[in-house]
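PROTEIN DATA CARD
Card holder: Methionine aminopeptidase
Chain length: 249
Origin: Alicyclobacillus fodiniaquatilis
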Amino acid sequence: MIVLKSKHEIHLMKEAGKVVAGCHEGLRTFIRPGITTMEIDAFVESFMRKYNMEPAQKGYKGYPYASCTSLNDVVCHGFPSDQVLQEGDIITVDMVALHKGLHADSAWSYAVGEVSPVAKKLLEVTEAALYKGIEVSVIGNQISDIGHAIQTYVEAEGLSVVRDYIGHGIGRQMHESPEVLHFGPPHRGARIKKGMAFTIEPMVNVGTYECTLDDDGWTARTADGQLSTQYEHTLVITENGPDIITAQN
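Structure generated from the sequence above:
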């Protein structure tokens, strides 16, 4: 069941979204060659707690960290570790803030120093694909219009959209209805209505869209070992269009 959000719930989600966005803004300069992904995780947890918010991923279904740090060929849910970032790496940091019972969720990808032309294009296309999906997230459209817009754009750029991991409704639960696919035909699924809140979070690969799963049960990688990136926003649907509550300055 899709739960439409009240004004009060949206207010709390916006407060959480501002903290998530602020954390990502801070990571722009924090992420650099020579630091570890565990240091990134510590930065995320410290930032959230400074604003009296809980890192909602920590403990979620047994996940042990405040963030997911997905490096190079890792599609999503990468574990923070002592691995040191190298010049030319790309890394996605995914985080969820919990504020007075409400959630906000955003993943963002970062270039570590100077990156290859292939990596640069991947980053640019994936971020643009996110906004292609947001553009059609308006009252009266259907949920599958989002995925169709993303897939059409990405594949025209010669890249592929991951099928195994999708966007989702969000609010009092981290994951709610509806499911938001990033691929598929248009004009299917639930109608988009005022008060809906959900994430759009395309994961885009250089090669095949297929993924494998590490033995830890969390870390997803590209099946061919090529690069992957992800960009994600949480949005709330209003009469005036989608309100991106995790928008960065």
